[in-house]
């Protein structure tokens, strides 16, 4: 884990030409998430993931993120296993608890207060079904016996199922990553906060006797990289909107780097020093998002250096 890699978020929607161009860049992964009932006409996570698997050939593809408590885990396990097997084992599952849009929880009959507990149990269900062979589960929310999941292309996916990468920013998400996840992928988090999350996850895992060997230290990073640094900063402010766009520039720079390749590299180096090894670059712009990914991959990534994680 002394190597730094870049991924990209296919914002605003997966498009075949964008993905083909992105695969020619020195990036390792492409991600896209989605809500079940978003306030606008944007896609849903599993549907978008299906497009990513169909329209890419080389890169790892993943959900960033799947609002897992909104889904029945047996159905999700089948969908994700099929996509993983169809893609030759390239799928990763970024999961989160959601909660930004309470109406989608109401519409699917899931109490908002249960989203954390449901996510924890759903991860357990996914893993049981992905192991292969008959599985039995009796939990708080779901129960089944001698149930076997058979992917559409047996043996073509990753053994044991796709990795589960936990997203979030708060202590329960860190605990979930430490105990249940294969990786950690927060968002809108400063380098200092990321470093503290690494410590918290390691301590939680150690207390539970869990070995984090192979654990992925990721960061979903909204940013804009342009030759014109002022353009990049203006784009970022407009993209983040009223919730964050009006914040002081110093605060925005801590959670969403923007500027020239040299400026963004300096910001990302602070994340590397905090423990990040896999960045998912989410272009904070309304146009030419591929240009941001290209500059990030070709001019920011080579400027970053990392030592071995301890």
From TrEMBL:
Gene3D superfamilies found in the cross-reference section: Luciferase-like domain
Q: Any signal peptide, and if so, which residues? A: none
Q: Name one Pfam family in it.
A: Bac_luciferase
The UniProt transmembrane annotation reads none
> What keywords tag this UniProt record?
Flavoprotein, FMN, Monooxygenase, Oxidoreductase
Q: Which residues form a coiled coil?
A: none
Q: Which residues form the Luciferase-like domain?
A: 16-278
Q: Which domain of life is it from?
A: Bacteria
Alphabetical list of PANTHER family matching this protein: ALKANESULFONATE MONOOXYGENASE, ALKANESULFONATE MONOOXYGENASE-RELATED
What's the protein here called?
Answer: LLM class flavin-dependent oxidoreductase
- From which organism does this entry originate? Actinocorallia longicatena
